[in-house]
Amino acid sequence: MSLMNVTEENFKAETSSGLVLVDFYADWCGPCKMLAPVLEELANEVTDAKVVKVNVDDARDLAMAYKVSSIPNLTLLKDGEIVYQDVGFKPKEMLMQLIDSHR
DSSP assignment of 58-80, as one string? Predict the structure, then answer.
């Protein structure tokens, strides 16, 4: 699957079932830019989980609902429920292990 940008309008539809890794980011965020290619690779390699991006500047209500105070914020949802949430750059191997541990 490819990396998908989601908005407040389609967030629930895209994240309500299965495993979904959500990257809350902003275009002006340096660490977010470093994380982008890692997430792109991950999205292309993982077949049974989605990887989506949410721009916090465009989706402020969503960011507040998920208590995003720092970015990049990586939130793993399983059937719409938060099973993991952390801030900062993470290597692809760590993200793969995270997804594997919640399958």
Answer: T-HHHHHHTT--SSSEEEEEETT
Put simply, whether the predicted model's pTM sits higher than 0.90 gets the answer yes
| Exposure letters 53-70 (e unless 16+ CB within 10 A, then b) | bbbbeebeebbeebebee
Contact at 8 Å (CB) between 11 and 62? yes
Domains within the chain, CATH numbers bracketed? 4-101 (3.40.30.10)
Q: Average pLDDT, stretch 77-95? A: 97
Structure tokens at 87: 């801030």
Q: Is the separation of the CB atoms in 95 and 74 below 8 Å? A: yes
Q: How do residues 61-71 score in pLDDT, each as one tens digit?
A: 999 999 999 99
What is each CA distance from 54 to 36, 62, 91, 103, in whole angstroms?
A: 12, 9, 19, 23
Residues annotated as catalytic (active site), given as ranges = 29, 32
Secondary structure (DSSP) of 24-36:
EE-TT-HHHHHHH
